[in-house]
Amino acid sequence: MKVDRNKGFFNVMKTSEKKASIDMYGEIVDEQFDDVETSAVSFKQALKDLGDVEEIDLNINSPGGSVFSGITIYNMIKNHPAKITAHIQGLAASIATCIAMGADKVVMPANAMMMIHNAWTLAMGNSNDLRKQADDLDKINQTVFQSYVDKNPDIDHALLQKMMDEETWLTADECKNLGIIDEIGSSSKVAAKISPEMEAKFKNMPNQFKYYNVEEPEPKEPEPKENTDNDVINDKLDDIFKLLKDVADEVVKDDDKKGDEDDSGNEPPTQSQNKKFNKFLF
């Protein structure tokens, strides 16, 4: 199957005997159906396939996705013996930021962004069900909150909670000041493309990440239209009408000539009468 890398991809490769690179571009999902997504299962298999490596560059450009898959990946990164450096290539939003926090070092280009917010879900049921859903979300939020605190134990808890409550988009400088990244790197040309489905989950998304800003391909020249049966019939009718008009013109001319030669005193047809006849044909 051909992978459309404009939508995202999950790619794993060894760059040397003891060093590897993992590209996590796209959404984090519970079940991976193709190579444009990342799941906890696929990530675990990737680490297994890499074997005994000492360094891993984890390149992230993701709008987030499944909280539990993201937390699982975070724990795998956190517990892996290799030195893992997370590179925020374009965007790390939602649970993708949590994944980055598991790395030993986080590098973020000056033109990249992070987004932190509270978890959300679709819920239905009675009042007791909905209260339980709300309580569960609070627990999930606390788990994600803790990942930022583990990265920087000195972070202002009240400020962090306020940012999560308000869905906050952070520049590299702001992330560095919060202590959730270690280094600001050179600008990256990579830009995240967020699907309309993911876009609907965010409240304050900057325009550069919106789906409608993705450059559309140039329109193709319209292909020549093939003649249909109706086109052929219309062409034949046009020929018939033209022939009838020519015949009618000849008839009118003959009548005019006869009228001029007629000694009975009858007047020849007037110009207005000829026009009425021509209009009838068309």
Please write out the topology:
Layout: E1 9-14, E2 19-25, E3 28-29, E4 38-39, H1 40-50, E5 55-62, H2 67-79, E6 83-93, H3 95-101, E7 105-109, E8 113-116, H4 127-151, H5 157-166, E9 168-171, H6 172-178, E10 183-185, H7 196-199, H8 229-261, H9 271-281
Parallel strand pairs: 2-5, 3-4, 5-6, 6-7, 6-8, 7-10
Antiparallel strand pairs: 1-2, 8-9
Task: Give a quick summary of the entry.
By secondary structure, the protein is of the alpha/beta class. It is 43% helix and 18% strand. Helix 2 runs parallel beside helix 3 and helix 8 packs antiparallel against helix 9.
Describe the protein in words.
- This protein is α/β, with parallel strands linked by helices and 282 residues long.
- It is 43% helix and 18% strand.
- The radius of gyration is 36 Å and the shape is elongated.
- Mean pLDDT is 80; it is low at 1-7, 211-218 and 271-282.
